[in-house]
Amino acid sequence: MKTFHKLISTWWLSGTVKKTPGTVGSLASYPIVPIILSNRILGTVTIISLFLIGLWSISNYTKHYQTLHDPKEIVIDEVVGQLLTIFLISVLLNQEINSLLLTSCFFSFRFFDIIKTWPINLIDKNIKCPLGVMLDDIIAAILACVFIEAFYCSLSVYAG
User: Fold this and answer.
1) Of 73, 72, 76, 69, which is closest to residue 26 (Cα–Cα)?
2) ω before 34 within 30° of 0 (cis)?
3) Exposed, middle or buried: residue 126 (CB in 10 Å: 0-12, 13-18, 19+)?
């Protein structure tokens, strides 16, 4: 079971790379994108399921491996945050997601996840449990969506 928790928490070991494990974990979420975009109900269920599995897995991983509260190799939170960003943008913009939007989602989510602006930094500093690990990425996803939505709205205003 210890290995299973490692596979889930590190998203099939993608988080075990030496450099930029969070970025690699975010990229490793992209094979699931067609599933979350195929149907809103399926997308919602998939993201909520991964969130709940992530909570359970992170709890067991940190216990079995006696690691810090949020070690770099745990990237299931980045996977959930990245998928949530893409899913929410598809809903908010109500259009098919193209490669430009996927790229925008990737870079926006990574920006907010790395920079940890308010309120992400409050969660990261104050909630030292699996929920805190997951929640800061959920907030980063929401902020990334607000940023992308504002950008696309401003483009449509200037486009006439």
Assistant:
1) 76
2) no
3) exposed
Residue 142 confidence (pLDDT):
98
Question: What percent of the chain clears pLDDT 70, i.e. is strictly above it?
Answer: 96
- For every residue of the chain, DSSP letters joined together read -HHHHHHHHTTTTGGGSSS-HHHHHHHHTGGGHHHHHH-HHHHHHHHHHHHHHHHHHHHHHHHHHT--SS-TT--HHHHHHHHHHHHHHHHHHTS---HHHHHHHHHHHHHHHHH--TTHHHHHHH--SHHHHHHHHHHHHHHHHHHHHHHHHHHHHHH-
pTM above 0.90, yes or no: yes
Q: Calculate the average pLDDT of the chain.
A: 93
Statement: residue 136 has pLDDT above 90:
yes
